[in-house]
Amino acid sequence: MSIELLAETAQAMVAPGKGIIAIDESTGTIAKRFASVGIENTEENRRAYRELLLTTPRLNEHISGAILYDETIRQSTKDGVPFAKYMADNGMIPGIKVDKGAHPLAGCPGELVTEGLDGLRERLQEYYKLGARFAKWRAVINIGDNMPSGTCIESNAHALARYAALCQECGLVPMVEPEVIMDGDHDIETCYEVTEATLRSLFDALYQQNVVLEGTILKASMVIPGKTCDEQVDVEEVAESTVMCLKSTVPAIMPGVVFLSGGQSDEQSTAHLNAMNQMGNLPWPLSFSYGRAMQQAALKLWAKDMKGNYAAAQKTVFERAKENGQAAQGKWEG
Ligand code: 13P
């Protein structure tokens, strides 16, 4: 591996005013998204939908790359151009989700650990040949009664670090994603404490596994109250808490941090990112790697009329990319 190449890719992923679109839903997850708008979950519908997203005109003005799913990186446009080639030809970096999902953690009822390390080196080598230059692994940290346990945090951090080291060996930038889940009635302070402990454990594990931080991207969740918490807070409080938590845990040498949307509305996700960037004086670029908050408007439109609304759906993808690209520079005007 070349550290310079990894660092170059990582920096390009968070170039000024650009972020990532996450379209790496597993077949099970996209089934839920399609079902919510009445689309049949066939391979052709999944392909056509990913083509709509990736071929959005001028997407590359605000999108540096996309995270694909195993099926998607093997698919092509209707004209026969593999999606990864289409992206590279249009100045966007292909990424790939490589974890095999979150499974029950033995000995810790209700908690999850992400699996997928067995055979990962060979899969990464294949994805590199297919054109991927970064890879994502998502750990799930739930907040609840006596949760998360130290065992859950440490097991997930260890797996993330093992995966990250393998990625770098294979020439792929690891996008490490420890997602603190928004479900629950916990307050913002609890989310802060859990996020802080999770990130401390993650960076400790990355250090132990000799992961080069210059060639790594952090995909973080925001510090935010649980969805059913009675004490919701304003945009500034989410922004300030998130930035403080990141500053106290994430080394300044990291090339960038991108956020997941995690169930926030489109507007919230953009407003929070914008407020953080307006604070200024940040050690790293803060950008986005949204799935739902990039796609949900487009999916609804496309579902109503796949042919008639095709261009309109692409227009909303572009608008969401543009707004989030502005927010990544603190220039979103709402
Ligand atoms: P959301 O933005 O919908 O949370 O998805 C981002 C992602 O990639 C989660 O792993």
Care to describe what's here?
The protein is of the alpha/beta class and 334 residues long. It has a single domain, classed as TIM Barrel (Alpha-Beta Barrel). The longest helix has 21 residues, at 188-208. Helix 7 packs across helix 8 (188-208). The protein has 12 helices and 10 strands. 1,3-dihydroxyacetonephosphate binds at residues 22, 138, 177, 260-262, 290-293.
Give me a quick take on this structure.
With 334 residues, the chain is an alpha/beta fold. The chain is 46% helix and 15% strand.
Low-confidence stretches: none
Radius of gyration: 19 Å
CATH architecture: Alpha-Beta Barrel
Bound compounds, each kind once, are: 1,3-dihydroxyacetonephosphate
Q: What amount of the residues lies in strands?
A: 5-15%
The DSSP helix count reads 12
CATH homologous superfamily annotation: Aldolase class I
Whole-number mean pLDDT: 98
Q: What structural category arises from helix and sheet content?
A: alpha/beta
The run of helices and strands is: HEHHEHHEEEHEHEHEHEHEHH
Sheet with most strands: strand arrangement: 1-2-3-6-7-8-9-10
Strand elements, count: 10
Shape: globular
First-last Cα distance: 42 Å
Name of the top-level CATH class? Alpha Beta
How many domains? The number is 1
What level of helicity do the residues show? 40-55%
